[in-house]
Each structure stands twice: as structure tokens, then as C-alpha cells.
């Protein structure tokens, strides 16, 4: 937790690059967006360097490493190529996520329980290089306990199912998923893991997650970049920050 006790906000700038790449131009610049997010109160920046480079590019990672004064959280698949990139840059944090070429966005959490040995060997050099290793997982006991066993320092709980149920009006399912998130955040904290959360969070869904005392950081991207079209990036982030702080109190 931060010294002042605030819940941290990590802003994901992937979809600034999505807009840029739609025209194959040099703008809008994700690094500029990251700096604006920092000025608006983001505590960190998240960027997902996908294997197919559909949004964030290698040059973007170079620019983010050079141009930020807040921590960079590099999301990446569990591949030798991505490990080499992370070891070369040594960002503050590395978040391991599942990745499929055909998916629109990250679907579900990483399967840790069935791949403990491989993942333990994968994260060891990252930790040795000084990166804080986070594992993006569903709110399931088996995954939380496996993340702890392999030596991860952080878990990021996937909030997508909760957000989707809310958007669809499936409120019973939403509340059940929210309860699972609460339970797994508590379990992870008891095991000594730092708890983050993210995926699909909006102004309408952020408060119950932000209110969980064990959650130290939220990572939010697509919604904020979309909202920035109407409000501007700074005001969009400021409103999310306000809702998070209000829920935390």
C-alpha cells in the first residue's frame, strides 16, 4: 500500500496504440498518453506487449521505459521471446497473462495450477532481475494457492466475469462473482501475496472492488481510453480516482 494508504491506479494505455495502428500512423502516441495519465494521478502505467504486436510495439516499450517516472507494469505471455524482452528492459513489474491470437482481449486468467513447474522456472530469472512478478488469475482457490507456491509476489484477480454479469443485468451471478473475488483477495493476502485487480472495470463497477481492503492496485485501460474521447484523458482518470477513493473510505 502507498504511504498515504490510497489504493493505487494503474492506467493501461494499450488502446491508444490500437487507435494509432488503425491508420498506421505515428499518432496518437501511447507514450504521450502515459505521461498525461501520470500527470492526471495514475500511480503506474500498464502496457501489454502482445506476440502479434496488435497494439503496443517494441518501440513503445522503449519509450515508456525512458519517459516515465511512475512504474511500468509490462503485461506479457509466458514465452521465451517475452521473457527476453522483460529481462532486457527490467520494468518495475511483469504481469503474466494468457494470450491467444484469435481473442479480442485477454480471456480468463492464467492456468497456474496445471503448469506450476514451468511457471516457477519462468519467473525465477525475472525475480532475480528485480522485476515484481504478478500472475493474472481467475478468482479460484487452486490458482491463488498455486501462484503462491511458484514464487509470485503479486496476483491480479480477473474482474471480467463480474463486470460482464453486471453489464448483462445478471445480478445474481454478479454478486456471486463479487463474493468469490472478496474471498480470494482475503486468501491471497493471508498467504502474503499482494493483491491487484482489473479487467472490464468502469465507473459503474469499480466501487465494490475498490472497497476490498486487501486490494492494493487496480489496473484499468479500455474504459478510460474510451471515456477520454468524451471527457479528455485527465478528467476521465480523475473521475475514476474519485470513485476509487470514495469507495475506499
In terms of topology, how is this protein built?
Blueprint lengths: L7 E5 L1 H10 L6 H10 L4 E5 L9 H10 L4 E5 L3 H10 L3 E4 L19 H13 L3 E6 L3 H10 L3 E5 L1 H8 L3 H20 L3 E5 L7 H5 L4 E6 L1 H10 L1 H16 L1
Parallel strand pairs: 1-2, 1-8, 2-3, 3-4, 4-5, 5-6, 6-7, 7-8
- CATH topology name: TIM Barrel
Tally of contiguous helical segments: 11
What kind of sheet is the major sheet? 8 strands, parallel, barrel
Give the CATH architecture. Answer: Alpha-Beta Barrel
What overall geometry do the principal axes of the alpha carbons give?
Answer: globular
Over the alpha carbons, how many angstroms does the gyration radius reach?
Answer: 17 Å
Approximate strand percentage:
15-25%
Q: What is the rounded distance between the termini?
A: 15 Å
Explain what this protein looks like in three dimensions.
Helix 5 (116-128) links the parallel strand 4 (93-96) and strand 5. The radius of gyration is 17 Å and the shape is globular. Helix content is 49%, strand content 16%. It has helices at residues 14-23, 30-39, 58-67, 80-89, 116-128, 141-150, 160-167, 171-190, 206-210, 222-231, 233-248; strands spanning 8-12, 44-48, 72-76, 93-96, 132-137, 154-158, 194-198, 215-220. The protein has an eight-stranded parallel β-barrel with strand order 1-2-3-4-5-6-7-8, surrounded by seven helices. With 249 residues, the chain is of the alpha/beta class. The chain has one domain (8-248): TIM Barrel (Alpha-Beta Barrel). The longest helix is centred in the last third of the chain and has 20 residues, at 171-190. Helix 2 packs parallel to helix 3 and helix 10 packs across helix 11 (233-248). The protein is built from eleven helices and eight strands.
